[in-house]
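Sorry, any thoughts here?
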Amino acid sequence: MSHPLYIAFIWHQHQPLYKSPGSGVSLSPSQQYRLPWVRLHGTKDYLDLVLLLERYPKLHQTVNLVPSLILQLEDYIAGTAFDPYLTASLTPDEQLTYQQREFIIQHFFDANHHTLIDPHPRYAELYQQRQEKGQAWCLANWELPDYGDLLAWHNLAWIDPLFWDDPEIAAWLKQGRNFTLSDRQRIYSKQREILSRIIPQHRKMQEAGQLEVTTTPYTHPILPLLADTNSGRVAVPNMTLPKQRFEWAEDIPRHLRKAWDFYKDRFGQIPRGLWPSEQSVSPAVLPYIIDQGFKWICSDEAVLGWTLKHFFHRDGAGNVEQPELLYRPYRLQTAEGDLSIVFRDHRLSDLIGFTYSAMPAKKAAADLVGHLQAIAKMQRDSQSEQPWLVTIALDGENCWEFYPQDGKPFLEALYQSLSDEPHLKLVTVSEFLEEFPATATIPGGQLHSGSWVDGSFTTWIGDPAKNRAWDYLTEARKMLANHPEATEENNPEAWEALYAAEGSDWFWWFGAGHSSNQDAIFDRLFREHLFGIYKALNEPVPPYLKQPLENHAAQANHAPQGFIHPVIDGKGDEQDWDKAGRIEIGGARGTMHNSSVIQRLWYGVDHLNFYLRLDFKGGVAPGQGFPAELNLLWFYPEKTMVNSPVPLADVPDAAPLNYLFHHLLEVNLLTQSIQFREAGDNHQWHPRFSRAQVALNSCLELAVPWADLQVSPDYSLRLILVLADEGRFSNYLPENALIPIEVP
């Protein structure tokens, strides 16, 4: 019997607890929430996703709703939640304080400008004024209508295009400018109206059988780290751990029970699936999940790879080799009982999350369907009697900000193609498991301890700042344990503050690896939740909780912090490059770079391209005081291939310039033309075709397709930049190093 290829989409909807418990001073309602993202993502990302799906009844999917997200949505629906953005939006223009005007100019463009600002002429006009003339100019020259329009547009732009046919919303979009306080009050009412439909719509579609709704431990904690922070050393044996070991496994059943009861109350049935926060699992947490009654969980292919001691290689097209190992559910066997687990295809999930937004919608949808059709063919060729299940699981909110029209054209093209394709069948995880229970087994004790980020916990522990946060949490947890009289019934404030502080998001943002312009607010919120524990217990608050946990000044040099998709126009858009790696060149130590005309270097990747940007010292131009030829040379460590030396005269015989390289991209900075070459025998270089893009304006920007380099996914390579004049070596960067590149 031949089966269709079954596909389980799981969309994870989550926002951290922005609700502040207070910091020892009386808070006005307008300060209750520190950030607006529950409200704004609520109007842009949660309802439209399932409304679009409802139009394609053959397609079934799974959506995960974190309890702490639902709690916050309910506050906004009730009209009891206020954040600084909302408070400013509902303030009469003439009553805005100087501090509020500063805040508005600084933060009311907190959005991807390509997709949320540029499509709206008035919003784009205000954004360009701030970008080109600066915040101080806006503060000195803007009049009340400018503020009124910006307050309106910040809220309007976050309303999903699916709702633009609403007569009121359509009228506001057409109006464009001269918004009044009354307009903004109505926009806020419209936001609450959209928010109020989210949970009922999910419940309705679950009852109809098209949707499965799952849950997550109450405030999204990393369960394996609650059980034992030493579990961080399973994947990284030499990890530096916090000074104090956090071992509070007794908190795990509390988070699970609260999530279970919360779900039952909102959805009128018990949950079947559990999305472990950050897809983090370990043997220690399985008994608690089983005892609570959950039937299945999900994690990442890296966790499966570690568990099976098998690395999932991919072919040149990005398709998994030995797919039968990944595309099946497993049964975890424990003394407490069994639990099913599915593992997501990391690459397919990331393509939606990080890459397809940079492609035309129909082309992106066709690419994903093409991958699924290739897997379906592999399934047929294998003649397997067991059906395959491809799990695609990712954040269901953050990626859409980078898609045109919030991903609507992409999802419509994708859903239509999937509806028309007879060999592909979308299912909820539970309906697949009910029809085809897992037959492959994994002993529970063999399960790897890790997450969906590299199969480790390094995103949440091991960094000095993250470890310090764990030590702060340990001290507060011990204080609560020293008050056995403080139960959840008679002192809920203490326990709610603990649950909030145990959430994963604070640790995500602390230390190296992730950063935003709101790092200081996350720092403050984490300490406020800890503060709330001491306050509820009438205990003195440790002085360190009144100081920032780390310095939030921007780092000069740092590794890439996420995928990027810059527009290659030579303008160096700050949002396009905000997650790129950065290396300061001008003024760096060493004789070569003290007077460098190149000030800094930016680099990053997505699944399509490698990206590079060079910022020049003001007033200089190629051919006028600095070389006009830039050479990019790729070095492939530990890979056997034909390589050649740098093809320039006067190259110093010193590492890394005397390495042998395999690919070379020559860029003429005067003409912006390129020549791409590949190493040949006898230290020769042979011309090859390239689709690389280059643009030089206020900076130099480059995009080099992975297809040019013919490198397989999940590979590390290195790059050096060499400047030359008429074929003679002039300079190179970065000094005494190679740029590390991780192919996704």
User: Anything to note?
Assistant: The radius of gyration is 27 Å. The first strand starts at residue 5 and ends at 13.
